[in-house]
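Database export, one record per block. Field names are fixed; values are copied verbatim from the stored entry.
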Amino acid sequence: MDTKIRVGMDISQLAHLGGVATYTKNLTDNLSKLSGLEMVYFYSSLRKTYKGKLKNVKSYRLPPTLFEMLFNRWRNVGVEKFTGPLDIFHSSDWTQPKSKAKKVTTYHDVVPLKYPQWSHPKIVAVHKRRLALVEKEIDMVIAVSESTKKDLLEITKIPENKINVIYEGPTISDSIRLQGDALEPDKIKKFKEKYNLPDKFILAIGGIGERRNLERAKEATRGLNLVIAGVTLPWLSMEELGLLYHSARVLLYPSLYEGFGIPILDAFSTGTPVITSNVSSMPEVGGNAAIYVNPQSVEDIKEKLNTVLNDEKLRQDLIKKGFERVKGFSWEKAAKETAVVYRRLLE
């Protein structure tokens, strides 16, 4: 196909923090660089105006609850009313509007469907309504891991031939990532002083609810310095997040469930050893470059943590393997593979 494909994408999740926003930002930044696509973006938020660098953003100052009703329940208006004519429409994880275009959506995980106890009942209801529309109308689903694909096959009616796995990438920028141990010690020192961080600490990643398994992480690290991003520290800029990873002795990521697990790649990118769970997508992302634990066992977490902290040869081996492992993941690759999905739907 020689002519450009006109792709509409819902980027409303950029108004929020979290993994879906990270995916949306990094994927759109790279899709916008592809010459074969003409991108148009739909953005809706009542409280937060769009201030990014994407071009051709159709921005509306309306609450997401209104668009959820408009697109998932009433369904009397197509998305083209807001974007103009489209060849492809790529929906977010919140709404599934009517469209004359071929429809693509991304499933990051199935938490509200598989583990409803971890989500607010209203969020569970929205995802169930949207899933019914996806099952009926979608042309292609992008799953961010084989684990998420497996979950979709188990708990939805989406056929396997409509699910395409496309991995995510690390979020730490190349300029920070590639410096590795060459980062100026003074820069690390100033960063630690700014946030009053101990000289040696274990890094964990915060999140909503119990999914990140922070209570067991705290118990397993009793007597050690544990820093939790987003909890004991505020959410940081990308540059400072890179410095945080560089400063940590190890990333402890004993999550009970992840659709992908970007922090694993961010740790690999910055030369930080990783201890993570042996469930869902985490072994798929970490490969042979991480140490795996039973996330339900405090003793297992504690034992593996002590080993990584005290065995310098193991630490260096994990760092080396992490640098190799992360080379297989990038947002540029994700964007190119996503564009292939778009083209195939139009053949």
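Remark 1: The mean pLDDT is 93.
Remark 2: The domain at 174-326 is CATH 3.40.50.2000 (Rossmann fold).
End of record.
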